[in-house]
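anyone seen this seq b4? input:
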Amino acid sequence: MKRLFLKFFAVCTPLLVTLVSCKGTGGQGDGLISSSGRSSEVLVVCTEAEWQGVLGDSLRAVLEEPVVGLPQTEPMFRVSRITPDRFGPIYQKQRNILQFKVMEGETNSRLLVEKNKWARPQMCITLSAVSADSMAAAFSAAKERIVGYLMQGEMARFQRAQHAQQDAHLNTLLQKNCALSMVFPEGFIYAVRRPDFCWLRKETKYWGQHVMVYTEPYVSENQFSPEYIAALRNRHTKQYVQGSADSSRAQIDDRYYPVTYNPCTFPNSPYAMEARGLWGLFGHPGDMMGGPFVSYTLLDTHYNRVVTVDGFLYAPSDPKRDLLRQVEAILKSLKVTDSVEVLGAKKGR
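predicted toks r here
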């Protein structure tokens, strides 16, 4: 078992973070049983007093916070709770586990992150505080890292499932088209394929998932401003994404909820901007389609260009959180390839 120790100093609460990768002692070939639980579900292990007190209030506020950019309220995670004395083998195979423990005699709180401890895939997080009274403060100091680890686990699980069902031909066409690689599961098809713009979609009876990929040469930092990102998205969707009526076109719909823009990290890119919001059809009163979208605009220094990967969803009758996260997992599979030259782009130095 390998351990990596990282020490963080939060305000008032020093926190030692330990990351552990476990092989387990289960019965499958790799020594682990299959985990159980639904997507985005977290099992909290804490005492009744903690759950009914300040810690419980903080837990529910953080983990059940509404997801940004959805047209209706959906929590970030589904939260269930069990007391430590009932936490046995049946519950130890849950995919996401968050435990709280008191370590008397210690001087610092500790955050232990264990992957695949009792089952696979699994994220097991244990927050240990120096006393029961300091547990809520320890959680407040660690909450962003805890949410981050849980989201990493969810994205990794979606991506493993998508990789197992990958339609490699779609990726081959994307590489030939614009020197980019992405993992698309079976069911997606190309709606539009141009040298600087691709739109793929997957349609079912109840919902549709969509991915757009578009590029342009890098000119200035202004290409990462919210105004520019929104205008470029609207320009592409106005040209390519229409409704049932010829006059209706998809555009950003910020009449009720503003689009949020946040700098973010993206593999192999020195700078990236995330955008989350709503889209809708405009131009014809009979077209009432709309839904959430998420996009990542990043700097590709290899070809000196700006790349945007954008995922949007239409699911009028279904919960949208997990459907959009599936699309987000596709976006985050993006890689720049060396296989072809990009039309109109030059390699950076």
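Residues 1-13, 24-29, 340-346 have pLDDT under 50 and may be disordered. The radius of gyration is 22 Å. kinda curious what u guys think
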